[in-house]
Amino acid sequence: MENPVRESCKKIAEQASLVRIDSSALSNFAPRNLKRTRTVPFFAKRLTDEQELAFQFVFNSVNYSFWGSPKWHAEYQNHLHDGSWGMMASLRRAIDEGFPILDPRYLADLPKDEASVIFRGTTKIPLFYERIACLQELGRVVLQEYDGEFTNIVAESKHDALRLLQIITTRFPSFNDAATYNKTPVYFHKRAQLLISDLYDRFDKKGYGEFSNIGSLTAFADYKIPQVLRKIGILFYHQNLEAMIDTGIELQAGSTAEIEIRACTVWACELLQRSAHQMSTVDIDHALWALGQKKTPSDKPYHLTRTILY
After folding, report:
1. Which active-site residues does the annotation give?
2. Residue 304 lies in a domain
3. Theoretical Cys-Cys bridge with 80: which of 25, 65, 73, 233, CB 3.0 to 4.6 Å?
């Protein structure tokens, strides 16, 4: 079984007209200098393995689209957190406050008023109703297809990362991250791949995190990784696209520009991996993401696309 993301993104990257991968910048960049760091910025009480498995599914079901002005932050343990950490903080806060968010029966009929408490922050979270729908879908599918047990999803995959990817993207429609480019299908599956990677890391490659074919995962095509690749000179945008991004004009999900940015991001990370033999493509993705958390005056804006996919 092959990962459809890799080959479909390669084809787009090789014919893209608005985004270019700079081969000389690739050659000059040393991925070995990257450090794969993703340390959770707060302490949370330990969950059982089964609870942790459920938590990762819940978290990755709503881990997307945090940009906006003003930006949404969630308060947890007297600190404000934004982006993915903000989402994780809001979910851990919900558990601390007694919301049964790890129970698919609760998720399947998640009330809007309780969701507003779970996702409360410094401003209203983007795509509020879409996040409710994603959690309700997660709960319904786990109840109807897996007897209410997240463990049965991993069991069905036989601990094969690619099989699990197929299961997640077909059984849970909100995870099916695909588009069409010049009548050709292209796959990204950002959240589904990140979920598998998170399980692998969280369980230290054991138990619910033990997978064959884990090296077949690709980079996770979001808006932070292309921003970093552009900053270090690996991605170049056509001047019209560059102007749109730099002035904050939103790109439509599934547009030519948005697809080319994401596909070139995936393929650029594949090319970087070829010169970093001790790092997987996922390692490179995480390291680039960590690099992107270090703000500098020379930072360029990231592209803006409002979507549940990333």
Report:
1. 222
2. no
3. 73
